[in-house]
Every structure is written in C-alpha cells, then in structure tokens.
Amino acid sequence: MSPLVKIRSERDQMSAVERRIADFILDNAQLLRDYSSQQLANALGISQSSVVKFTQKLGFKGYPDLKYSVGEAIARADNGGVEQATAHAGGETDDSSAGGLWRRKSEAEEATRLINTSQTLAAVAGAIGTAGRSGKVFIIGLGDDDIYARGFALKLSLLGILTVHNFDTARMTANVSAASAGDVLLVFSEHGNHPALCKISRYFRERRGQVISVTRHTANPLRTLADIALLVSAHDEQPYIQPLLYQSALQHLLDGIFVRLCESDDSRHAQLVANLDRIQQMLEP
C-alpha cells in the first residue's frame, strides 16, 4: 500500500496539526528524504513529538520508516512519474494532463477501497439482499447525489429487488411510512449534513429499518445516524478536480456492491439476465 495513498485516505479524519504534516508530505514527498523529523517539525512550527506520533498513528515504526516507505513509493512510480504530491520536471506536470487525472482517480478509488472494509461491503450487500427477498429498499439522494441514487436503484431493480426511489424529501417521508423491520434505506449525501435527510433517517429507524449512508469520509450527522456507513475518500486541492474524484470513487464503490449482489445469489443473477433480455427485446424494432 502506498504511504501517500494511505495519508490521503485518512487526511479527512486527522486533527489540524496532523493535516498540516500530511499536506506537507503530500506536497513535498520528493524532498522528504532530506528532512529529519526535527527539520520537518521546524518547517511546520510544531514539536518533533507531533511528527513522531503522526507516523506511528499511520502504522509506521517511526519517522525513518515513513521516509523510507515514501522514497520506495516514488522509486516504483512508472516511467519516472511520481505520486500526486510529488513534483515535476520541464515545467508541466502530469497532473495537468488526462493521464494525471486517470491516476488521481485511481488513487481516490484505492483510498476509498481501503477505508471500506470487506466486512462492511459484505454487510451492505447482505442487508440489501435480505431486504430484496422479503421487503423493500428505499433510496434517496438530492441534487448531484440523485444521479448515483437513481443509477443504483435501477441496478437493484434489474436484480429483481423491489426499490422505492425518490429525490423529493416530502414524498420519501410519506413512502417511509410504509417501511417495516428488515427494510433498508440508502441515503446518498456527499457531505452528510442535509437536515431533511437526517430526519428521514431517524424516522426510518423508528420503523425498525436499517439505514445505510453514502457520504464523504468525514465526520457528519448522517454518518452518525447510519447503521452502516459507506465512505468515499476523494481529496484534491483543485476545486474542479475534487468532485470528479468523488464521483469516480463513488461509482467504483457502488459497482463493487452490485457485483457482490450478482455473484452471491444465482436467482438474482438469472433475474438480471432475464430483465436485460426483455429490455433488449423492447428496444428492437
């Protein structure tokens, strides 16, 4: 696992001091070999012990171990390229090219994979699968989040899972009144702080349903309310790049859950094939 990817994936959960250290390493990875822990502390105006605690919190034995690991990651980069936070030759960086965007998307997807354990993904697929056999799966997302909520609702429908999708909070509130124990509510909210979605989640839990939140890897009210939290890690300094990374990592995460649902139940897979065949027949002249 690349130490830079690990730092980037955990950055949103760090304290202010830890984020300063993380940002310095990400922005100056190629120079880290020239810094001792004391020099790094001096450059940031913090104590040396803060640097040491930061490295240990990441799972390294100490600062030298982190520095060596970062150096190895840079050396392994293809074609002499470097990680997102490293620098640059000839004035123009790969980060400004399409190739750089692909690489950053791959890093966001890897970071998202690391923070969503296999047990978490299995729990999500299990909850949806169970609800699909005898109950309902409610899905809501507002604004841009509805794009992914709608797409995932369609995929579940193709598997023969009864879905109740809505992008209107008032209508979803009414729909939730028909929820019962064993049903699942999937709430898509990038920042996880929409008051109406939090209220719907509380109401759904009162109906003894299970809430699954899909948000950024940050502390947020919706994540706190959820029984299971799916998290997306996508950090970039450029405001026009960060949403692209979030969307790519989110889609990759949802695709993984869909594949689990397909492969864990032969009847669902057969239903998918049958539905796709019917749709194709409808589209033919």
UniProtKB/TrEMBL annotation:
Every HTH rpiR-type domain range: 1-77
GO molecular-function terms, A-Z: carbohydrate derivative binding; DNA binding; DNA-binding transcription factor activity
DNA-binding found in the keyword field: yes
Keyword Transcription regulation among UniProt keywords: yes
Tree of life domain: Bacteria
Keywords assigned: DNA-binding, Transcription, Transcription regulation
A GO biological process held by the record: carbohydrate derivative metabolic process
Ranges where the SIS domain occurs: 124-267
Residue ranges crossing the lipid bilayer per the database entry: none
Protein's UniProt name: DNA-binding transcriptional regulator, MurR/RpiR family, contains HTH and SIS domains
UniProt source species: Rhodanobacter glycinis
